[in-house]
């Protein structure tokens, strides 16, 4: 029997009194796609940092092909054995594909970079791994899917045949995910081995042969995926039986016919959408879904003032919002959880309290300058209200798990007590329990009479909605009342009719 490509033996890592990993072991066999799952804070990131040589364990060891891992300082030796394609790309957008592939190791001729050789070698590398992008293309102009494949090609060019994929589908739509999975399957046949990290458990069953579950910094189980049905997998992750517990809107009583409209969108048109009209009443949760390219995110960002529509009107309580004006949207009663919490939702170096109170600083102190005591008091209220797991309001957001960071973003959106709450992919990249907590907030603010727009491709997010609008190629093409069937909604998102003769 062949040796594991990588083996972690009894790894333990502590940060002060906190155990980030406690006696964790993992074996990944050649040519397999092995899933690593667990709630945020379970220890996945710490384990990956040791498998890639970024951290040294306190006890235990990492081995590659039954040989000890290289010294931490020998970065080239680590690159020859393992690479990680992170959820947040390490590709430098301003450089070309060729420059990204050979960064810090460009071919040199007479003391200067040999551009012709670099482009030729880049083309040969891309052709060898069947990656269809131009070597001279600007990396920032590529799709998320293409950038991920370039990162994989760069890792393979060092000689690594073990690739860690960290939430690779978080920013991809259905067709892009299918193409990525086809490439993974092709690479598996060519001798590449993957460790696949995802909160989308269905993907584990689609692409992986084995799965390892971490919980509370400990190894819980490793098994073939067919030996762990979904309910057992969730139970291993959470320590509790049953699936995701979210309020299903189908069980709610209908709104009164005379309930007032809080949000009105009229004939909105922008870069990737046209003629979009809908409304959301007070105490109503409306879903807006579709593929990543459908225009759903752009519509949501226009409502929140994050981008400007070309034509059309957005009204909150009957008053028109100026286009592309976030402060005006906030003043008019619109709160927003943006799509990318790291780029748009948080200042990672600042504290929980500072992030949560960012939208209300002017109300906490004169001239918009709030005292630390007032910020911390507000932070403590939000920590209690949303169940944010943190050492306290002064704790830096960068030290929180992904699910708790997203709760801080939610706290900031709720800080202004908005009449309209816009949630864009609110549970992306968070674990099962964090999803439950975030979606419970939706139910709570609905009961308070607020209008909620949930913009997401996640079916679990959409189950909280009284009705779901489906966008396809920039237009609303269907509306589903609560109680919809998964296959019907998915077919509509993909542009397929199940009722054609």
UniProtKB/TrEMBL annotation:
ABC transporter domain span: 6-241, 256-498
Name the record gives this protein: ABC transporter ATP-binding protein
A molecular function GO annotation: ATP hydrolysis activity
Gene3D superfamilies hit by this protein: P-loop containing nucleotide triphosphate hydrolases
Transport as UniProt keyword: yes
PANTHER family documented for this protein: CARBOHYDRATE TRANSPORT ATP-BINDING PROTEIN MG119-RELATED (PTHR43790), GALACTOFURANOSE TRANSPORTER ATP-BINDING PROTEIN YTFR (PTHR43790:SF9)
Pfam families in the cross-refs: ABC_tran (PF00005)
Highest taxon listed in the record's lineage: Bacteria
Record key words, sorted: ATP-binding, Cell inner membrane, Cell membrane, Membrane, Nucleotide-binding, Repeat, Sugar transport, Transport
């Amino acid at each position: 029997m062949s040796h594991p490509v990588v083996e972690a033996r009894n790894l333990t890592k502590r940060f002060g009194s906190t155990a980030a990993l406690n006696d964790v072991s993992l074996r990944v066999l050649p040519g397999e796609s092995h899933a690593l799952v667990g709630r945020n804070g379970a220890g996945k990131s710490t384990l990956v940092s040791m498998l890639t040589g970024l951290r040294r364990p306190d006890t235990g060891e990492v081995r590659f092909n039954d040989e000890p891992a290289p010294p931490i300082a020998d970065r080239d030796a680590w690159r020859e054995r393992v690479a990680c394609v992170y959820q947040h790309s390490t590709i430098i957008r301003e450089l070309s594909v060729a420059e990204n592939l050979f960064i810090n190791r460009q071919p040199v001729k007479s003391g200067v970079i040999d551009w012709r050789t670099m482009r030729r070698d880049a083309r040969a590398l891309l052709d060898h791994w069947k990656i269809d992008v131009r070597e001279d293309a600007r990396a920032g102009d590529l799709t998320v899917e293409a950038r991920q494949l370039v990162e994989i090609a760069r890792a393979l060019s060092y000689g690594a045949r073990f690739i860690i994929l960290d939430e690779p589908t978080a920013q991809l739509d259905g067709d892009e995910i299918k193409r990525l999975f086809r490439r993974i399957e092709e690479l598996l046949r060519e001798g590449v081995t993957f460790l696949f990290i995802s909160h989308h458990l269905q993907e584990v069953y689609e692409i992986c042969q084995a799965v390892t579950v971490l919980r509370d910094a400990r190894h819980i189980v490793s098994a073939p995926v067919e030996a762990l049905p979904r309910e057992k997998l969730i139970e291993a992750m959470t320590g509790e039986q049953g699936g995701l517990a979210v309020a299903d809107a189908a069980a709610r009583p209908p709104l009164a016919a005379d309930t007032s409209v809080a949000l009105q969108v009229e004939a909105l048109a922008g870069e990737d959408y046209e003629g979009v009209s809908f409304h959301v009443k007070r105490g109503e949760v409306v879903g807006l879904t579709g593929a990543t390219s459908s225009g759903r995110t752009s519509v949501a960002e226009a409502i929140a003032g994050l981008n400007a529509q070309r034509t059309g009107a957005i009204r909150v309580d009957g008053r028109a919002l100026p286009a592309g004006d976030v402060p005006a949207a906030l003043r008019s009663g619109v709160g927003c959880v943006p799509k990318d919490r790291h780029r748009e939702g948080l200042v990672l170096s600042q504290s929980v309290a500072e992030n949560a109170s960012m939208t209300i600083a002017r109300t906490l102190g004169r001239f918009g300058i709030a005292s630390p005591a007032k910020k911390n008091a507000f932070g403590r209220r939000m920590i209690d209200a949303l169940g944010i797991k943190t050492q306290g309001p002064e704790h830096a957001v960068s030290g929180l798990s992904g699910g708790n960071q997203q709760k801080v973003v939610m706290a900031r959106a709720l800080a202004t007590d908005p009449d309209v709450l816009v949630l864009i992919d609110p549970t992306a990249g968070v674990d099962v329990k964090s999803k439950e907590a975030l979606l419970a907030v939706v139910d709570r603010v609905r009961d308070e009479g607020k209008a909620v727009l949930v913009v997401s491709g996640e079916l679990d997010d959409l189950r909280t909605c009284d009705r779901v609008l489906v966008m396809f190629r920039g237009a609303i093409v269907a509306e589903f009342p609560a109680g919809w069937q998964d296959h019907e909604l998915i077919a509509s998102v993909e542009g397929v009719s199940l009722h054609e003769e």
